[in-house]
Amino acid sequence: VYVFLLGLISSFSLPPYDIFYLNFISYPAFLWILLIYPNDKVKSFNIGWTFGFAYFISSLYWITNSLTFEDNFKPLIPFALILIPLFLGLFYGLSTLTFSFLNPKKNFLSILILATSLSIFEYIRSFVFGGFPWNLISFSFVNYLGFIQLLSVIGTYAFNSIIILLFLLPIVLLFEYKKNFKLSIFFISLLFCLSNYLWGNSNLKNHELT
Fold it and tell me: Which has the closest alpha carbon to 162: 182, 192, 134?
């Protein structure tokens, strides 16, 4: 139930809500739950799948709108509403399953492993069956044009990887690290966000002038 709620919470970070900071709560909580069952492969897969299913069922409901124009298609609405999120949730499940095979512990390395695993499977998702590149978590910033200018340099999926890592970082506060290390992580993250935002706005202004 808690994992399902976390997936729902993350879905509100996407348009039209754009409450991106919710992910600073849902993603660390998601990782913390995974770390409770580090060696349970089935549990890890189910946690990821449940999170992904909740995330997609809440954010892809609009798909069913295309089935409302013809009466013949209306019976398909429940299947589209449930089956597509169930399928897309598999990529989250495979991400967390992969994570469980890499001996996760309550340390910074686990953050990097989960961020990398989620990023890789999000990239794979863009190719499977013609591609389902919908609702990447980086879309949380789609209305913050200054912040997403980095896309023009590193591309969508590299940017998505950075965003996942950024959202996971608050869990460092719960790890047994020294205060100086935690403060370093905080200030480095803050410096990245600030410099990226300032550079992005400068980039936008330069394009407006040309």
Answer: 192
| Whole-structure pTM value | 0.92
**Residue 9 burial class via C-beta count within 10 angstroms: exposed 0-12, middle 13-18, buried 19 and up:** buried
- pLDDT tens column, 52-94: 999 999 998 877 777 677 777 777 778 878 999 999 999 999 9
User: Residues 142-167: pLDDT tens digits?
Assistant: 999 999 999 999 999 999 999 999 99
Distances (CA, A) of 134 to 115, 123, 171, 198: 18, 11, 26, 28
Contacts of 38 (CB under 8 A, 6+ apart): 44, 100, 103, 104, 105
Residue (of 19, 136, 171) closest to 9 by Cα position: 19
Q: Which of 153, 138, 185, 150 is nearest to 27 (CA)?
A: 138
Output the CA angle 129-135-141, nearest 5 degrees. Answer: 145
Between 73 and 107, residue with greater pLDDT: 107
